[in-house]
User: What shape does this take?
Amino acid sequence: MAIDKNQKKLLFWLVIFAVLAFFMLSTYVNNFTDSSKPNDNMTTSNASNNFSNNTSTTNSSQIPKSTGPAGINESELKKATQATKSAFRESGVYEFDDMSVSYNQSNNEITVIISVLDTTKGLYAKKMAETTLKRLNEEVRVYNSSIKPHSTTYYGGLYDECNLTIMVVPKNNMYDSKYWYISQYMTKGTHRNITLKKMYASGSMYI
Assistant: This one.
């Protein structure tokens, strides 16, 4: 069967269009494949590191370590303080108002401040200070059993480990030192007798 001139032209252009279509399809496929590959600059190691950085928690070495007295941490000291407060309140000691306990690591010193009602008797304030120190020692022992328990004339092993400042202040005059019942410093291990300030030690049991 003979092919005329027009049919030859049509066949020629069909071949040209087929070649162009094949070339365009090949280029599209190659570009799509290349775009789906990982970036050459992003190695497996880099990708892993980026994932770790995005999902990991703070490195443990970056977490500040809490420090407290006698081998316990700050959180445990707060819990021991709260337990001591609760013991006073639950016992119905109405003279007791509040207390705070802080620890200074640089000079290894515990500061215990007790606020009481302004009508509290002097000798009762002294007894409260002694009782507070002993009770705090026992609450700290919950977290470090190697600390020695208190006794009649011994406040407890906590104060063998740390220097101590003990203060008892009236609730409404706590910022005026002349009204403080007790403000006393003890070097660790001394367990000295707690003494009232002169105005409360003169025989009067009231302010």
Notes: The longest strand covers residues 96-104. The helical segments are 5-36, 44-55, 74-90, 122-141, 158-161.
